[in-house]
Amino acid sequence: MSNIFNNNRSNKAYISTNNVISFNNNNINNIDYTRHFPPANVEWSNSIYAYNKNSLRHLPFIDKMVITLIKSYFNLFNIKHEKRISSIKKGIKLRRLSINRIFVSKAELKHTSSKIIITIFIYNRQKKYYLNKINKINSIVQLNNTNFLKKIKLESLNILEQVNKEKKLLVEIFELKGSEYFNDYEERLLEDFIKKALEKELLKVLYENILYFNKSKFEDTSLLKLKNLLSQYYNKKVEFNIVNLEYLYLNSDILSESIVIKLKKRSNKLLRVLKTSLNMIKLPFINKLSVSNNLNKIKYDKTLSLNNIQNLNALLQIFVKKYKNENVFDKLLQDIFPFFSKKEDIQNVVLNCIKHKYISGVRLEATGRLTRRLTAARSIFKLKYKGSLKNIDSSYKGLSSVLLRGHVKSNIQYTNINSKTRNGSFGIKGWVSNV
Q: Which residues lie across from 237 on neighbouring strands?
């Protein structure tokens, strides 16, 4: 324990095992910010270490098949429930152009010797759409709930009186004998009246059934079938790490896919789609001058106890050995961080240290035959952006940043999607920068 917190070292700069550059001036260790080194599955969307090169040869083709299977699984729908709703009486072609679906990003595959971990980012647009519909129906029903049953009783009695009058007139005019000609006539009228009166309640039941089917896709019982199917391709166990996103623009794959679906409709204009997609994005205000000034203060602050810890992994290993059968997190709070009163305090400190939490800018490019003319369609190029794609560490803080694949910035998500319409093919490029 004492060796970890030992500050008596020579006045030289050194690099620790965690890629942390520290300077020791006047027997004080001032630890700099760690450089962002993302894992291989984030950088290349696939990470594997194998001795046999033949096993690696077919992986790109298999990965494409796996991604299409995952997307088709989350786009399943129940025909019986959705045919009853008038707004969804569409064919397969029109259904592909609808945005009320579960958007799935590109999969990040992490291979081990015994299993494969597939991480997926998901935006459940269908769930939000039907929840809003149910909330609207509940608000309308609550207003009309006081005298609703009384109105139904009065109108049903009026219907029965009208039916009896019609029977008497028809019997007198055509001289019909008996009531065999009027079988089920009253019941049909009452059924039609009840369906019209309880139309909103029946819609609510249908919406709840669709939501239940949507929820069942994320349960383990239904995911087991998908895992067993995917395990046949890799001959390994498959595990899913599903991350649900609150907003559409938090992932560039999902954002660009939604724009492609909108542009396939001829009624949608290109500039209007790009503007509306950028208007829904909310960017935080970042003062670049304050960021650079706060960095210098944090570097040379002697009161920060977290800067005195040189190797947090070694410290955790000591506590795991010391407290085997007890909660390590609670003991860590009591011994090392006594100034934190609750677990929420240390969680907030950890969350504040995480990188790439906020979105600083978005850039969208659309190229191809996106005019509305059916004949002689010409190729156009449109660009829209919001915020900036600069890396704050390298541009404003003066820190060195990491390049992914040798040319891509570590703070940027990039996607390129190609599609086609009746006029021709087009492409969408999307960049989303994080802070």
A: 115
State how far the Cα of 79 lies from the Cα of 85, in Å rounded to an integer.
10
* H helical segments located in 235-301: 252-263, 270-279, 288-299
Q: Which tokens is 410 given?
A: 């570590």
At residue 184, the pLDDT reads: 67
Q: How far is it, in rounded angstroms, from Cα 432 to Cα 414?
A: 7
Q: CA Rg, the chain, in Å?
A: 31
Q: Report the domain count for the chain.
A: 2
pLDDT at res. 17: 40
Torsion angles phi and psi, residue 37, rounded to 5:
-115, 95
Helix (H) or strand (E) holding 161: helix 148-174
Residues found in the chain = 435
Supply φ then ψ for residue 218, to 5 degrees: -95, 0
Q: Is 223 inside any structural domain?
A: no
Cα(202)–Cα(380) distance, rounded to whole angstroms?
47
Neighbouring residues of 253: CB distance < 8 A, sequence distance ≥ 6: 105, 106, 121, 413, 415, 430
**Residues of the chain predicted below pLDDT 50:** 1-31, 88, 296-311
The helix/strand/coil state of 262 is helix
- Residue 247 within a domain: no
DSSP-assigned states of every residue in 305-368: SGGG-S-HHHHHHHHHHH-SSS-HHHHHHHHT-TT--SHHHHHHHHHHH-SS-SEEEEEEEEEE
Tokens standing for residue 96: 């592909």
Tokens matching residue 83: 């045919």
pLDDT reported for residue 8: 42
pTM above 0.90, yes or no: no
- 346 lies in a domain? yes
State how far the Cα of 392 lies from the Cα of 177, in Å rounded to an integer: 92
Closest CA to 359 of 384, 385, 382, 396: 385
pLDDT, tens digit, 9 for 90 and up, residues 270-320: 999 999 999 999 888 777 666 655 554 444 343 334 444 444 555 555 555
Exposure string of 261-282, with b = 16+ CB inside 10 Å and e = fewer, is bbbeeeebebeebbeebbeebe
d(CA 237, CA 239): 7
- DSSP of 39-85, one letter per residue? -HHHHSSEE---S-HHHHHTHHHHHHHHHHHHHHHHT---HHHHHSS
Last residue of a domain, which of 333, 353, 373? Answer: 353
* Predicted local distance difference test score (pLDDT) of residue 229: 92
Domain that residue 198 falls in: 135-208
